[in-house]
Amino acid sequence: PTSPEAQAVAKRNFEHGQLLQTLTKEKVLQNALLLRDKKFGEISNAQHVISHEVACYMADAMEYFANNNL
Predict the structure, then answer these.
(1) Under DSSP, is residue 59 helix (H, G, I), strand (E, B) or coil?
(2) Which one, of 69, 52, 53, lies nearest residue 12 by Cα?
(3) Secondary element (H or E) of residue 39
(4) What is the residue-wise DSSP string for 7-24?
(5) Widest Cα–Cα separation across the chain
(6) Which of 2, 21, 43, 54 could join 50 via S-S bond, C-beta 3.0 to 4.6 A?
């Protein structure tokens, strides 16, 4: 999650989110929690798009990005 590649994806995710709303560090951290929640994945039907393991990895990258850049 701390690799330059993962952080580039986290930054892009943040920038895309900023187009829709003003994202604070707290909102990014909340979104990371949702990514880790298996029930959220089931409700949002996201499990068919990415695996839970990939979602958790991305959540770690988002948290690292937020804690070090926001």
Answers:
(1) helix
(2) 69
(3) helix 38-43
(4) HHHHHHHHHHHHHHSPPP
(5) 31
(6) 54
| pTM score, whole prediction | 0.81
Report the candidate in 35, 31, 24, 37 with the shortest Cα–Cα distance to residue 69: 24
Structure tokens at 33: 């929690």
How does pLDDT run along the chain (70 residues), one tens digit per residue? 999 999 999 999 999 999 999 999 999 999 999 888 877 666 666 556 678 888 899 999 999 999 999 9
Q: Using alpha carbons, list the distances in angstroms from residue 61 to 11, 19, 23, 69.
A: 9, 20, 16, 12
